[in-house]
Specification:
Structural class: alpha+beta
Helix content: 25-40%
Shape: elongated
Strand order of the largest sheet: 1-6-5-2-4-3
Number of strands: 12
Strand content: 25-35%
Largest sheet: 6 strands, antiparallel
Order of helices and strands: HEEHHEEHHEEEEEEHEEHHH
Oligomer: single chain
């Protein structure tokens, strides 16, 4: 490690050079060292595993940045913005050059992309230093562990280099402590709660479903063991009754379902209400039912004047 890197990083066994404060980039290089293949090559299985885990992490970070309750860009827009592409495989130790965003659009930074780039790099640092943020969502923690396992299977050492400023992070995946990424304990309310929304399937074979409520929140449903009932309710509106599981910040992270049944769209949403109250409101101006009445002779004189007679 060069003398320019901090001593704290040395204690952690992590190299972090080039602070790059305030600099963000949609491109970085992941270099894998010590692999059992010739330089510049990588096994397809390792490439597939790393790609899958890295994209899962990016997608979950993007959703975290956007905020599921935030009004604005849809989930599809967010996932498009944080989609990752492998653009180059470099020789030496195998280097994977990865870019963020769709290839059909030039790389650009708007607030969501900038926040994502910063959070992705911060997450790489956390992975390398065994130091996740306290507020890291459970799914992001799960993806971080999956990425560590994929990297550890591929190579004994990994190095990240940020294209914009040359900042680097080096770590040995097999020596990282995955236990620090275990999500904090959740609590389950004793009283039942009813949630309404559309049932969506995650995995029918493993009985994994979620409820998408009317503002777009996705709540995993636990305990839906009857596949026939689940099939009947799939993509339909339902009322799920159960005990909410809450995360460390008190937010509902899942519902332990005791019963689930079809539900109708609320009646007020389908009713057409004619509001004529404006007719009775006092309105300044001339009376539309009153006004001056002209005689036939007065109208004839008016028409003649208009015609220039």
């Amino acid at each position: 490690m060069s003398g320019e890197c901090g001593t704290i990083a040395e204690v952690l066994g992590v190299t972090q050079c080039g602070e790059g404060v305030g600099v963000m980039s949609g491109q970085f290089e992941l270099r894998l060292r010590g692999m059992d293949v010739p330089p510049g090559e990588i096994g397809l299985r390792d490439l597939a595993n790393i790609s899958t885990q890295l994209q899962d992490l990016a997608t979950r970070l993007g959703r975290w940045v956007a905020g599921i309750e935030r009004v604005g860009r849809s989930t599809g827009d967010v996932e498009d913005a944080v989609a990752l592409r492998l653009t180059t495989i470099r020789a030496g130790s195998t280097g994977l050059v990865i870019e963020r965003g769709r290839a059909s659009q030039p790389l650009f930074d708007v607030p969501l992309e900038e926040e994502f780039d910063a959070l992705l790099w911060e997450t790489w640092e956390a992975i390398a230093a065994d130091a996740p943020r306290q507020d890291t969502p459970p799914l992001v923690r799960q993806s971080a562990v999956g990425l560590l396992e994929a990297l550890g299977h591929a190579a004994p050492e990994a190095e990240l280099r940020r294209t914009a400023d040359g900042a680097r992070i080096s770590f040995r995946p097999g020596e990282r402590d995955k236990r620090v990424w275990i999500a904090p304990d959740t609590t389950v309310d004793e009283s039942d709660l009813t949630l309404s929304g559309v049932v969506k399937m995650v995995d029918l074979d493993s009985h994994k479903f979620r409820l998408v409520d009317d503002v777009g929140n996705r709540i995993p449903l636990e305990g839906v063991d009857n596949s026939d009932v689940a099939r009947e309710l799939l993509d339909r509106r339902a009322d799920a009754v159960g005990q909410p599981r809450r995360d460390s910040r008190g937010r509902i992270s899942a519902l332990v379902v005791s019963s689930i049944s079809p539900a109708d769209v609320p009646v007020p949403w389908t009713q057409h209400v004619r509001d004529d109250s404006w007719r009775e409101a006092p309105i300044s101006g001339p009376d539309p039912d009153g006004g001056v009445e002209f005689t036939d002779d007065e109208w004839a004189a008016f028409i003649s004047a208009m015609n220039g007679a």
